[in-house]
Amino acid sequence: MRMYLGSADGRSRPRGRRRRGLALAVAAGMVGTVGSAVVPAGPARAAVAYGTTVTQTFRASATPSCTISPTADVTRTASLPPTGGSTSLSGPTDARFIYANGDAVAASGSAMATNASVATGGGGLASFVVAETASASLSVFQAKSTAACGSGGLLASATPKQSSLTVVPITTSGWLNLAFSASGAGVIGVTAAVGLVPPGGSDVSTYLFIQQSVGSVSRQVYLPAGWSVAIQLNVSADASLRNPIDSRRSASVSATLRGTVTPVGAAVTGERGKRLARHAVALPGAVSCSTGRAGVRLTKVAKKKASSVTFLVNGHKARRLKRIKRARSLAIRVPTAGAITITAKVTPKHGKKVKVRRSYAACR
C-alpha cells in the first residue's frame, strides 16, 4: 500500500496533490533505527481489501552451526468482514537453540496478543479499537561454552511481530477522532497510520495520521464520503544474545489505536441550559451541511410562557421572533465550515432571560 504524509495539524484533510517526496512505501520487513528502538519505516504495501486482517509472525534464528527446535518461523492470521465484529490472536511461541557441541543451550520465548474490534453504521466506519502486544526474551540455562556456535558471533535472536490493517468504505462524511498510546522497553518498533483510498483506487494516496514512537497522541481527521479509510497498527520486539550476559536479551511493546467517527453536522453535546429554555425551544440533533441550515422548533411552552426568542449561531444573531402565537418549526442559517454552536435566548413573559445551547461537528 503506497501512502503519503498529510497535514500535521489537529484536523487533517486530504490534499489534492500527492506529496511524492514524502512517500513511505516500504517492503515488508524493512526497519530503520531511531535511538535504541527498531522502528518500521512505514506501513506495509497492500492492495485494498475491505475488512480487517491481523497477522502475527514469530521468527527465531541462530548461527549456522546451531540447530533450532521447533521450526523457527511461526505465522498466524485472523480476519474480520467489512461489516465489523471482533477478533483476537494470542499465545506464546517458543524455540530452543541447541549448540553444535551440546555444551550450551539457549531458550527463547515470545508472548503475542492482538485484539481488534470494528463497528460499522449507516456511514460506514463507526468506531474501532486495535490493541497489540509483543514480547521477546532469551535466556541461557546451560552455558558451559559461549563460543560453541562461533566466537563473537550472534548466538540467537527472537523477533515477534504484529500487524493489523482495516479498510472500510466511507458513505457519509465525518470526523475520525483518534487516540493512540504505546509503551515499551528494549529494542522495539511501532507504527500507527491512517490513510485515505480514493474512489475507485487500490492504494492509499494520502496520509492523515502517522505515529512511529511510544507515547500518547490524539488527533481529529476528516473522512470524505465516497473514499475508504485504511487503519494500520504494527508492533515488533527484538531480543538478541551474543553472550550469556547480553543486555539486549529481552524486549516488550504494547500499543493501542482507537477511533470514533462523528458525522459532519451531528450534535456533539446535548441541550444545555435552563429548564424553561430547554422546554420552550427544541434544538436539532444535527444540522444540514448540504443546505447550511438547522431546523429548530418553538414548542407550546414558548407560546405560553415566552415573549420572544433570539437564535444565535457561534455568538452572532441569526434570527429573532417576537409575539410567539403558536408552536412552529423554522430554519436558521449555519456555516458550512468550522464548528457550530446554536444558542436560543428565551425572554419569558415574567422573569429573567434564560438560554439553551447545543454544539455540532464541523461540516468541513
TrEMBL record:
Species classification: Bacteria, Bacillati, Actinomycetota, Actinomycetes, Propionibacteriales
Protein name in the entry: Uncharacterized protein
